[in-house]
Design brief:
Layout: H1 6-18, H2 22-38, H3 43-50, H4 55-62, H5 69-86
Length: about 90
């Protein structure tokens, strides 16, 4: 499969914007982004795939689909800290 050039993507997006089916195109992009983010794909990668100028645009738009982010962060740090505490022996190692 060949990767499209930036010019080809720009032409495609312009044609999509002029199409009467543009709302379906936007829905497909939104669905694509939501699925990727929910599957754990890094927001930077999703931003690049959507053509966003920055990851901030992506996060501002789609952060609501990542409600477990804080919970996952807490679990990750607890795991590291708990393992570290349990691993400490009498000599401090």
């Amino acid at each position: 499969m060949r990767v499209w050039t930036e010019e080809e993507v720009a032409r495609f997006l312009e044609a999509a914007r002029r199409s009467k089916h543009y709302p379906l195109f936007v829905l497909a992009l939104s669905t694509h982004a939501t699925i990727l983010l929910r599957k754990g794909v890094q927001p930077k990668v999703v931003a690049e795939r959507l053509g966003h100028a920055s990851v901030k645009v992506t996060l501002d738009t789609y952060s609501h689909v990542l409600p477990d982010t804080q919970h996952e962060a807490v679990k990750a740090i607890e795991s590291v800290l708990w393992t570290g505490i349990q691993g400490v022996g009498r000599n401090g190692r």
